[in-house]
Amino acid sequence: MKISTKGRYALRMLYDLAVHQEEGYVSLKDIADRQSISKKYLEQIVPLLNKTGLLRTNRGNRGGYMLAGKPSDITVGDVLKATEGSLAPVACLDFEPNECPRVNECCTLFVWEGLNKAINDYLDNITLQTIIDRGTVMGGDYCI
Q1: pTM of the full predicted structure?
Q2: What residue numbers bound the domain in which 104 lies?
Q3: Which residues cross the membrane (predicted)?
C-alpha cells in the first residue's frame, strides 16, 4: 500500500484547518499558501472530504472551509479512507464479508488480515489533535 499525494495533501489540509480553527472559515488560498499546495489540487480534494462529512463549507464573502468536528475526533484513518478508499493491503479484504472464492482454503489470508488490522488500528488511533500536539512538542510545524 502506498498513500497517494491526494491522501497526504488532504491530511495536511485538515491539519491546517485544525491549527487555524479559531479563525472560523478559512479560504483554500490561505491553506494552499501555508501548506505549499496548489489551490487547484485542493479543490479536487474538497469534494471527497465534504462527502464524508469531514469538512464544513460556507460560500460567499466570508466563505471557506472548517472542520466538521473536533480535531480530537478526526483520525488519520478517517482522512485516508475518504481520499484513498480502502486501506486493505490486498483486494480480497476490500469488502466484508470476504467474497474471494479461495477464502476457506487460503493459507496466507491470516497474514493479510493481520496486516490490515495493524494498519487500521494504527491510523484510527492518531487524531488531528495528536498531530497538533506532536508538532507543539517538536517546536514547529508537523511535516506530513
Answers
A1: 0.88
A2: 5-138
A3: none
